[in-house]
């Protein structure tokens, strides 16, 4: 191991030099004081960290900073400081945000002339809202009267600037890396994280070659939790870890290990979903690359391995034999550069080897994803998704957009890519086609859809001879129509799929065997797990069907039947008259539940279930279901309403009237085991059938 003493000394050298720093501005006041704001971008005073819809801002000092993201990137303005005398050789400041010279910048003016200028680091999607030190050498300006001007004249992507802690100093303060070198002896590196610590940019070099770089709220004291890097590919080689820290000591906390952090208690954490997929450590969002191949359901997903907030987007990876028991595999796709993240996409099996990637017998899996630095890219795997090779001709589609969804259009024997695109305030799904997954031709577009497009075909009422196509974007609101492989023609929609909360960016499985024939969907459940070393989860796989209703064709969602693999003790009840008030079902206990209940409404005004203290109500007068503030329409069928409810530790999914209404809802009740009650109000109803299945944890069966 190389001693880090030199780097440390260099870093601290300034401590011994000359006179004290002069703080020009720290933006800790309620307003800007003597600084004058023009335009809207800077608001009326310093921001307290991150503004609405902004990625997490970090690296500033204290509570306040200049942040021109007020009302988003579209606003512009200038913030001008009072005159001051240049009295030290350096002006140091923290700066972040957009890299648009002259448009998102801080300028130093003397006699009305710009003599120095600096921008933030970002001009690509992805990037990071970390403020870092920059420094101007102003020796030649000593004694001059100067002013500072913070400018935001950009309105597009990264059209904002962040600034904090402007100081005059005897020494230059730049975010200089300290480093530590290790010989990799174990498969994992554990890194300490402190929630809310400045997110620093950490970098790994393997024998002089850049290999990884990421932002991390690195703990310089007691950590809140540990994250990890899989370094099994680097065994026996020397890895240099570098990061801009005030000294090298905190890097000593990074340790090598044989297993992932918290392995002994994994999946038993207080807020760990017990049958919804969540990542072992770190953040997840969109499901990506849902594909069935050789007996495995693949679930790739947007993943930040280094923290519990969005950022550092990788493709995490898990596989399951049955949609219930998941095994997390090593990360499938890493960002190839600091400013090139791997955003959402999809996967197909190229059974006919149209791309020519095949060697040997194994069918090739091809994934399409958004590279934030390049465009829509593809990569392929010859080993069932275990490792991927980037196609050397990337990107395959260049445009402003993201989230390519691939499918095989069998009648035309070609591939389709449905991909989100945007320009001039318009948003649409573009359809491209290809015969080899490499060369794509734009065919058509449908406006009014946002990110994460999805398109698939379904039989009507199970009749394979009559089908329609469904199109939706991230919010799940769908249109029904026809698709000829190039053009989608809408017949109805948009209709609402989820009446719940936090259901987003769902995708359905490609290549489920024809004998199975189901259309299985997984969405991102935007449910927080505060205080945990992981965050967010997936919704439980739902089977989607298209059925005729009195309102026309509609999607129905029901839990994948494999949930029954977790069934443990069952309690059933029939024909119970539910009088006004609450009737406990004392035998129905257990934290994790799969409940079916069918009621004859009778003369009750409201009826339903109370599960672990949360009330699921059917309101007859309103024709509506309500649960934890979510509402959705429901009409009795033949005087009956029915519920299917999956209850996990941090999520509940409700499917009513055979899947006509789908309502996934987050919320925690980890300590609440009050069990199940039925209730009626304003009259009596009848519980025709109740089946309560206690569920085992899906993680008990972990291989
Ligand atoms: C949707 C989304 C996608 C993008 C991904 C990035 O949640 O914003 O559009 O590809 O997340 O993580």
Topology summary:
Blueprint (H helix, E strand, L loop, with lengths): L4 H8 L9 E4 L10 E4 L26 E2 L9 E4 L3 E2 L4 E8 L6 E7 L2 E7 L12 E6 L7 E8 L8 E9 L8 E6 L4 E6 L6 E7 L2 E8 L8 E6 L7 E6 L11 E3 L24 E12 L2 E9 L9 E7 L6 E7 L8 E9 L13 E8 L3 E7 L7 E2 L10 E9 L4 E10 L2 E9 L6 E7 L6 E7 L2 E10 L5 E6 L4 E8 L7 E6 L11 E6 L8 E2 L1 E2 L3 E8 L2 E8 L7 E12 L2 E4 L8 E8 L5 E6 L2 E6 L4 E4 L2 E4 L6 E8 L3 E6 L4 E6 L9 E6 L3 E11 L8
Parallel strand pairs: 19-37
Antiparallel strand pairs: 1-11, 2-4, 3-11, 4-10, 5-10, 6-9, 6-11, 7-8, 7-10, 12-17, 13-16, 13-18, 14-15, 14-17, 19-20, 20-21, 21-22, 23-24, 24-25, 25-26, 27-28, 28-29, 29-30, 31-32, 32-33, 33-34, 35-36, 36-38, 36-39, 39-40, 41-52, 42-51, 43-48, 43-52, 44-45, 44-51, 45-46, 46-47, 48-49, 49-50
The structure holds beta-D-fructofuranose.
What does this structure look like?
With 703 residues, the protein is mainly β. The protein has four domains: 17-169, Jelly Rolls, CATH 2.60.120.200; 175-257, Jelly Rolls (Sandwich); 343-559, Tachylectin-2, Chain A (5 Propeller), CATH 2.115.10.20; 561-702, Sandwich (Jelly Rolls). The protein is built from one helix and 52 strands. Strands 2, 4, 5, 7, 8 and 10 form a six-stranded antiparallel β-sheet that branches. Strands 41-52-43-48-49-50 form a six-stranded antiparallel β-sheet, with no helix packed on it. A hairpin with a 4-residue loop joins strand 33 (478-483) and strand 34. The longest helix has 8 residues, at 5-12. It is globular, with a radius of gyration of 28 Å. Mean pLDDT is 94; it is low at 1-17. Beta-D-fructofuranose is lined by residues 285-286, 302, 313, 343-344, 370, 402-403, 451-452, 474, 504-505.
């Amino acid at each position: 191991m190389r001693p880090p003493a030199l780097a440390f000394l260099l870093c601290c050298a300034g401590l011994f030099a000359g006179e004290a720093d002069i703080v020009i501005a720290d933006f800790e006041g309620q307003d800007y004081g003597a600084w004058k704001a023009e335009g809207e971008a800077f608001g009326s005073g310093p921001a307290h960290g991150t503004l609405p819809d902004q990625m997490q801002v970090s690296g500033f000092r204290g509570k306040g900073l200049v942040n021109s993201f007020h009302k988003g990137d579209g606003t512009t303005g200038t913030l001008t400081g009072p005159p001051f005398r240049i009295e030290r050789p350096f002006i140091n400041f923290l700066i972040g945000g957009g890299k648009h010279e002259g448009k998102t910048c801080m300028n130093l003016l003397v006699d009305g002339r710009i003599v120095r200028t600096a921008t933030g680091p970002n001009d690509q999607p992805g990037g990071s809202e970390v403020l870092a030190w920059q420094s101007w050498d102003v020796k030649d300006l000593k004694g001059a009267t100067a002013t500072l001007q913070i400018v935001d004249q950009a309105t597009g992507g990264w059209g904002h600037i962040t600034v904090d802690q402007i100081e005059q100093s005897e020494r230059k303060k730049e975010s200089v890396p300290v480093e530590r070198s290790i010989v990799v002896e174990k498969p994992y590196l554990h890194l300490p994280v402190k929630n809310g610590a400045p997110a620093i940019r950490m970098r790994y070099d393997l024998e002089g070659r850049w290999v990884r770089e990421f932002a991390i709220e690195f703990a310089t004291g007691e950590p809140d939790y540990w994250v990890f890097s899989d370094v099994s590919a680097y065994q026996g080689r020397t890895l240099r870890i570098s990061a801009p820290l005030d000294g090298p000591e905190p890097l000593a906390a990074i340790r090598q290990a044989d297993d992932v952090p918290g392995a002994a208690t994994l999946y038993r954490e207080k807020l760990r979903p017990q049958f919804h997929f969540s990542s072992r450590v770190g953040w997840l969002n969109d499901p990506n690359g849902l594909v069935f191949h050789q007996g495995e359901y693949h679930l790739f997903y947007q993943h930040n391995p280094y923290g519990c907030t969005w950022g550092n987007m990788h493709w995490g990876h898990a596989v399951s034999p049955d949609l219930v028991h998941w095994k997390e595999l090593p990360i499938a796709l890493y960002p190839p550069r600091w400013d090139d993240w791997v955003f959402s996409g999809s996967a197909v099996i190229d059974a006919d080897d149209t791309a020519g990637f095949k060697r040997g017998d194994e069918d090739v899996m091809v994934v399409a994803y958004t590279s934030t630095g390049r465009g829509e890219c593809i990569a392929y795997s010859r080993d069932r998704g275990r490792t991927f090779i980037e196609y050397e001709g990337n990107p395959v589609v260049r445009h402003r957009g993201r989230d390519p969804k691939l499918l095989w259009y069998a009648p035309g024997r070609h591939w389709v890519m449905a991909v989100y695109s945007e320009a001039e305030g318009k948003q649409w799904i573009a359809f491209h086609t290809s015969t080899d997954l490499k060369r794509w031709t734009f065919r058509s577009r449908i406006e009014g859809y946002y990110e994460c497009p999805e398109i698939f075909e379904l039989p009507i009422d199970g009749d394979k001879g009559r089908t329609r196509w469904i199109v939706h974007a991230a919010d799940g609101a769908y249109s029904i129509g026809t698709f000829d492989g190039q053009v989608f023609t809408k017949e109805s929609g948009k209709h609402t799929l989820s009446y719940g909360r936090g259901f987003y960016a769902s995708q359905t499985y490609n290549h489920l065997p024809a004998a199975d024939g189901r259309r299985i969907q997984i969405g991102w459940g935007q449910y927080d797990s505060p205080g945990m070393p992981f965050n967010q989860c997936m919704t439980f796989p739902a089977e989607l069907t298209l059925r005729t209703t009195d309102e026309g064709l509609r999607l129905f969602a029901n839990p994948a039947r494999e949930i029954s693999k977790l069934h443990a003790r069952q309690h059933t009840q029939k024909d119970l008259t539910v009088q006004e008030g609450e009737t406990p079902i004392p035998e129905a206990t257990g934290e994790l539940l799969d409940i079916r209940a069918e009621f004859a409404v009778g003369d009750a005004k409201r009826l339903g279930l109370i599960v672990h203290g949360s009330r699921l109500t059917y309101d007859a007068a309103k024709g509506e279901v309500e649960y934890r503030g979510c509402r959705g329409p429901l009409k009795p069928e033949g005087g009956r309403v029915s519920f299917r409810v999956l209850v996990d530790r941090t999520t509940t999914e409700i499917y009513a009237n055979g899947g006509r209404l789908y309502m996934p809802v987050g919320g925690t009740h980890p300590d609440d085991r009050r069990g199940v009650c039925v209730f009626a109000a304003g009259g009596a109803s009848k519980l025709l059938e109740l089946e309560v299945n206690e569920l085992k944890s899906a993680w008990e069966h972990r291989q």
